[in-house]
């Protein structure tokens, strides 16, 4: 009988550990913030100043709302951001209501429609 009690204790400990893990994971998700790029104006020209005064963390979500027949969102590297060019293989979003989770460090986004990035349709978001 002593063996049965030991097994039951192991099951309870395992269940408690699983519950604790779920609580910790939920707490991390709850800390993430959701930002609509461009606020009410959405993802459009002169969005490059939208990040001013905002603080971002890894795991935060950016929502890009825009007219999908006129714009897109390309996730680029620093060179792509500076040169307003999406390199081959860059992740491009086209739904008009895209959700992107920020990675730690600087995340770069441009509209890759010719001339749009040059007109300020780009953002660099640094996530702590």
UniProtKB/TrEMBL annotation:
KW Disulfide bond (keyword) present: yes
MF (Gene Ontology): electron transfer activity; metal ion binding
Gene Ontology CC annotation, any one: plasma membrane
Phytocyanin domain boundaries: 33-128
PROSITE patterns (alphabetical): COPPER_BLUE, PHYTOCYANIN
Signal sequence annotation: 1-32
SUPFAM superfamilies tied to this protein: Cupredoxins
InterPro entries from the UniProt entry: BlueCu_1_BS, Cupredoxin, Phytocyanin-like, Phytocyanin_dom, Plantacyanin
UniProt source species: Setaria italica (Foxtail millet)
Official protein name in the record: Plantacyanin
Keywords: Copper, Disulfide bond, Metal-binding, Signal
UniProt-listed CDD domains: Plantacyanin
